[in-house]
Amino acid sequence: MPVECRSDIEYAERPLAFTWQGQRHEIQDILQAWRIPNGKRFRVLTTDDQIFDLFFDEPTAEWQIHQP
Question: Which domain holds residue 47?
């Protein structure tokens, strides 16, 4: 799975790390989190000071990772 996350009450409550282009990135901070009609979006800061957008599509249970 490309995104490792904390899941308490529901899945994908807080992303902790992810794999992108073959490299694992640990998340230092969640800069922004919001719900969208089909899931959740997170803007995160990694421990190597990169910013990524993570999208969790609930109907398909798939993650998408983008670097803005």
Answer: 3-66
Residues 9 and 2: their CA atoms lie apart, in Å, by: 21
- Which two three-digit tokens encode residue 61? 């249970």
Q: What SS3 state is found at 22?
A: coil
Domain count, the chain: 1
Return phi, psi of residue 10, to 5°: -135, 165
pLDDT digits (tens, 9 = 90+) for 4-62: 988 777 777 889 999 999 999 999 999 999 999 999 999 999 999 999 999 999 999 89
Cα 21 to Cα 6: distance, rounded to the nearest angstrom: 22
Do the Cβ atoms of 23 and 33 come closer than 8 Å? no
pTM for the model stands at 0.87
